[in-house]
Amino acid sequence: MDDAMQSPTTAAGAAPSAETTVARSGALIPGRSLLAGWRHTAQWTYLIMLIASATALFASLVLSAETLQLARHPGESLGCDVNGVLSCSTVAQSWQAEIVKFGGLSYPNAFFGIAAESVFVTIAVIGLCQVRVPRWFAACTWFGGLAALAYAYWLFSQSMFVIHALCPWCMVLMFSTTIQFMALSHATAVVQGLPPRGERLRKYYRLNIDLMIDVVWVLAIITLILVVDGPALFA
After folding, report:
1. Chain mean pLDDT for the chain
2. Which of 28, 124, 156, 226 shows the smallest number of beta carbons within 10 Å?
3. Hey, what CATH class is 34-74+82-233 in?
4. 115-131: b (≥16 Cβ within 10 Å) or e
């Protein structure tokens, strides 16, 4: 039995839980989950994050290439222009596609997606390697994932309700960012042990409630897309 489990027994004669041990010591064994089961291990949670982040990175690369193609040949259709609703070029030519402006120049969102998702891929690899990271770094990573998710959903809402066109690769990016955040939150709670006294949060994962919430979340997005643009998607 490793050192993490060799804690003094409590007054009732039972060994303190892993969560209690972490709360007292303030440290975690690298890669050691606070919960039992393969689904809560660093290998699984960070693997899911890596797959989602790599998918988002690939989508960002494609979108960047499509943006450059559109700049070189403004009149041509892009490969992801399926119909009037599923149209990358319609979204790419909107102001929402280039919200960052500096020195009179505007920068496509996809370029920032490449930078951000490269960071998340690196963080996922670090997690898979079971490297100990400071708590401040783990907390900043989670808030970075939350910011990326909020940005992706803002762009999605703009595409659906303002631009009235959906970019297929943007939707791939949005769904992969969603799964990335789910996996990152899981790893932050059960592997990184944040918050330190988050017993209720870890109970949420121990009872697998997160699986139900995640499935409902994704199905709700798909349902929204079908309700708003369903008939036009298959026209």
Report:
1. 85
2. 226
3. mainly alpha
4. ebbeebbebbeebbeee
